[in-house]
Amino acid sequence: MDAAVSMVMALDNNSMDLQDGGQDGLQDVSTIAMMPDEGGSSIPTDRIPFVVFGCVGIIGNLIVILTLGSKYELRRKIINMFVINQSIVDMLASLTLMLFAITLPSDRKSIGISGEFYCKLWVSAVLLWSLYVTSTYNILGMTVERYLKIVHPFWYKRFYHKRHAIIGIALAWGFSFAFNFALTVPTTVIDEDYNCLSMGKWPSITHARAAGIITVIVELFIPLIILILCYGGIVVMLRRNMDTTTSDNLAASGASQQRDKTINAAYRNTIKTLALVAIVYVICWTGNQVYFLMYNLGYNLCWCGPIYIIETNLVNANSCLNPFIYAFTYNDFKKRFRAIIGLKQQDSGGSVSGTTKVTSVSQSVEMSTSNNKASE
């Protein structure tokens, strides 16, 4: 369960106390799904999916990092900087999720300074939630980079450099952690019985619900709007370019046609991969965020039914799905991974694809140019 859901439980358990004039509005919400039952000695059944998602996410994302990072030509590409960072974030999120599932403290009492840090930084799930949001905004960074390169190519070539990608990555990390820490740490407290109350203290229900609505806006609506606008612009531009390329190819040489075809195919492959990543994100996150929004709008919802369990597991699964998308669709990853394990990537005609094909096209163009000069 994420920090947003912890807030929901705090509100749900706490609403009567606040309305009836409770002093602090404190309730013990540390019994989140990823925390163990009192005195438990094994991982509860409902947390086994967290362990599975964590293990798969760690292994899958580590493979992506090692594969794309093993070759200088790949890791220096701006888009692959985002992909590698995405895998780092998702791997850390998967590791954190698994640690939540297997952590089995004897009790949830938090005493002293160390207990307060444990309560605010671990029981509150602020680290996990911050990594999830970092992953979201890194996807936005990848999408905006592709949008600028395809829709505004001249501006991109002149102004967009590697340092801008690094700045974008740093902003995704900084904003996500700052937002979640500001929301979670001040509202997570320890009561007089030393129980950790994750996001359990709010000035009023109005403040808590306002924070919940802002959370949904930041974590769902803003990313969704940016994704729709960017991919809409990309689709329009690619269709326009296809029409232009078709008319231009009527008068172009065979080598030039092949070169344009190869470049367009590379663009389409990258866009298809990133679009799938974005679609999976929307599928995994929409249910959780809509559920949370409905609560903050006043609906009386169940936080233990099958719908809630499914949408929570979808959020947790998101971090381990991206490596499978890269493995099946992303040519940079597929070619490099095949090279690492000793296989060659070939197209349907039996010729080596990818960089070799581009090189052959370039060589053909150069030979054609040289022959023309010689004939002159």
TrEMBL record:
Q: Which keywords belong to this entry?
A: G-protein coupled receptor, Membrane, Receptor, Transducer, Transmembrane, Transmembrane helix
Indicate the transmembrane segments per the record: 48-69, 81-102, 122-144, 165-190, 210-238, 274-294
Tell me which SMART domains the record gives.
7TM_GPCR_Srsx (SM01381)
Q: What is this protein called?
A: Orphan G-protein coupled receptor 21
A single GO molecular function, which one? Answer: G protein-coupled receptor activity
Domain (G-protein coupled receptors family 1 profile) spans 60-326
Family from the record: Belongs to the G-protein coupled receptor 1 family.
Record-linked Gene3D superfamilies: Rhodopsin 7-helix transmembrane proteins (1.20.1070.10)
Gene Ontology cellular component? membrane
The principal location of this protein is membrane
The protein's location, in the record's own words, is: Membrane
